[in-house]
Amino acid sequence: MRLGVIACEAFKEELEFLMAEDPDIIYKEYLEFHLHEHPKELRSTVIDKVNALEGDVDSVFLAYGICQSLEGVINELRVPTATLKEDDCIGVLLTTDGYEEERKNCTGTFYATPYFAQYKGLRWFKEELCRRMPNYEELGIDFDWYMDRLFDGYSRCLLIDTGVGDQALCEHSSKEFADYLNLEHQSRTGTLERLEDGLLRAKSIAYSSPI
Q: How would CATH label the architecture of 3-90+192-208?
């Protein structure tokens, strides 16, 4: 079996854990998180990446939430592909029911995934401000003010613990983020079941595809 994986880099550590020493995985590529900001580019990139594997793999696991831009993308793929049905990475790591439960618990929640906690945090927002508005200081915009406006209405930071990656760093980083914004900090155990199921469905598709 020849299985390809095209995924958002937000799932990299979880997928690397699930795919460790799996001989069926012959190709994997993680696309940069910034693509989420450009829905049309995200969709076209995903289509190009999957279709480029035609003839080289038996099936693909596309590890992306629907992300408001991938609805129906399966119809534009020329390689048998297993996709995720959840709206975004939060739904994938909490399940749709778990996500809805947390929304009911606290509508003003910032969800700190392991990816965000380990590699983004406060630094990412500072970089984003600099990227979007390089002269923000000249315009009299203060980073503290920017963050207060951006997270107005938020009251909680929820760390999703998938059991993968540097858990101590995740805890430290998410608490630092919560403290900076005066948010309550909580954590919840996440799940890898949706990603694992996607890999298994991709293998099932490969088995059932004509040779």
A: 3-Layer(aba) Sandwich (3.40)
